[in-house]
């Protein structure tokens, strides 16, 4: 069970760059996400926790964490392109 969360996962470079979004705007966008995506985005994008820490806290594999993070980032990006409306 100890190796359950130890998968080394990295992105392929196709992720939206959210680094230039002001913290307040990012927090608002994260708050509009569905719960499953919100908890991942909050832990990784706002609280700056490690993938291992967040996956263990949520009880999900890192592969699932990466999938949820990718979906959250795409949703945030689309929301911002649509003038802040949830996508």
Number of helices: 4
Helix residue percentage: 55-70%
Strand content: under 5%
Shape: globular
Mean pLDDT: 83
CATH topology of the domain at 22-81: Arc Repressor Mutant, subunit A
CATH top level of the domain at 22-81 is Mainly Alpha
Oligomer: single chain
Distance between the termini: 37 Å
The CATH superfamily of the domain at 22-81 bears the name: Winged helix-like DNA-binding domain superfamily/Winged helix DNA-binding domain
H/E element order: HHHH
Please name the CATH architecture of the domain at 22-81: Orthogonal Bundle
Question: What structural class should be given to the helix and strand makeup?
Answer: mainly alpha
InterPro entries: RNA_pol_sigma_r3/r4-like, WH-like_DNA-bd_sf
Describe this protein's structure.
The protein has 87 residues and is mainly alpha-helical. It has a domain at 22-81: Orthogonal Bundle (Arc Repressor Mutant, subunit A), CATH 1.10.10.10. It contains four helices and no strands. The chain has helices at residues 23-31, 35-46, 51-58, 62-81. Helix 2 (35-46) packs across helix 4. Residues 1-11 have low confidence and may be disordered. InterPro entries: RNA_pol_sigma_r3/r4-like, WH-like_DNA-bd_sf.
How would you summarize this macromolecular structure in one to three sentences?
The chain is mainly alpha-helical and 87 residues long. The protein has helices spanning 23-31, 35-46, 51-58, 62-81.
Primary descriptors:
87 residues, mainly alpha, Arc Repressor Mutant, subunit A, 4 helices, WH-like_DNA-bd_sf, RNA_pol_sigma_r3/r4-like
């Amino acid at each position: 069970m100890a190796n359950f969360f130890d998968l080394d996962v990295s992105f392929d470079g196709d992720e939206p760059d959210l680094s230039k979004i002001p913290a307040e705007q990012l927090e608002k966008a994260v708050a509009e996400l569905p719960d499953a995506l919100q908890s991942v985005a909050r832990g990784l994008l706002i609280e700056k926790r490690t993938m291992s820490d967040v996956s263990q806290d949520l009880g999900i594999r890192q592969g699932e964490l990466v999938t949820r993070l990718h979906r959250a980032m795409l949703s945030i990006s689309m929301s911002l392109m649509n003038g802040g409306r949830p996508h």
